[in-house]
Amino acid sequence: MTRSEVNIAAVDDLVKNGHQIASRMIAESLNIPKTVVLRILKENLGKRELCACFVPHSLAPEQREDHVTSCQDIIAIADVDKNFFNKIIMGDETWCFAYDPETKQQNSEWIGETSPQPKKLKFQIPHIKNMLIIFFDSQGAVHKELVPDRKTVNAEFYKGVMVHLLKRIQRVRPAAFCSRDCFLLHDNAPAHKAASVCQYFTQKNVTILYHPLYSPDLSLPDYFLFPKLKMKLKGLHFADVAEIQEAVTDELQKVQKMEFSAAFQKLHNRTKAYIYVNGAYFE
Fold this sequence. Notes:
By secondary structure, the chain is an alpha/beta fold. It folds into 2 domains: 5-44; 61-110 and 117-276, 2-Layer Sandwich (Nucleotidyltransferase, domain 5). Helices cover 48% and strands 11% of the residues. It has a 5-stranded mixed beta sheet with strand order 3-2-1-4-5. Helix 2 crosses helix 3 (34-44) and helix 5 (155-172) packs parallel to helix 8. The radius of gyration is 25 Å and the shape is globular. The two termini are 40 Å apart.
């Protein structure tokens, strides 16, 4: 069976009427081999099959516009100051669990031809967990805090973290601290935007970079540091919070300076990508 003009037109018509139609169903409908259908789809119609990408939110036009505007502002600063991305100190929080199951790929195993498929229990959030708050720049980790058990990260607590952060910057980045030639970038969590925290930043001459709502593609912790950290902890069991803290500290120390530097360069590229896709999610 050849790839005739009639078959090509028929396949094209079926795909236009149902983008999720399976190649097997097309083959059965037109009574042609599935291999021919696949060649028509790829070679004649230029199609490719992709899974849908889950996104955090359905962005309104004004939110997409906000993404673009904020990225344009960052690029404008970077065009003037070529060292701008090396002056950003980025922070965020994440939960670290006493047990985080391995991914399916990590959990795969070689079995016999007739052996049943291995099974594993669905993940349930452990009772033992610890929140990590970390700030880092292109040179590496600047400051981290592991939140005490049963402590809530509210405005009062977060302001205390900011006090510790500035002291740490003074110690490990003295030039940036004295000149205040650095920028803090964190998300829009309520504690981050609290009046007392903002007043403290004003008193201490701390410049805060605007982080648009619902923009995880611009969050270095979300696509770089936290996945890297948690992948190393998957499948490990920790008896208590102290063991979690020790493991987290050890893994953070293993992240090389060049990896932090490359991540901030990637942030530069992602900022441009956000403008290119008109503020939509791209990953």
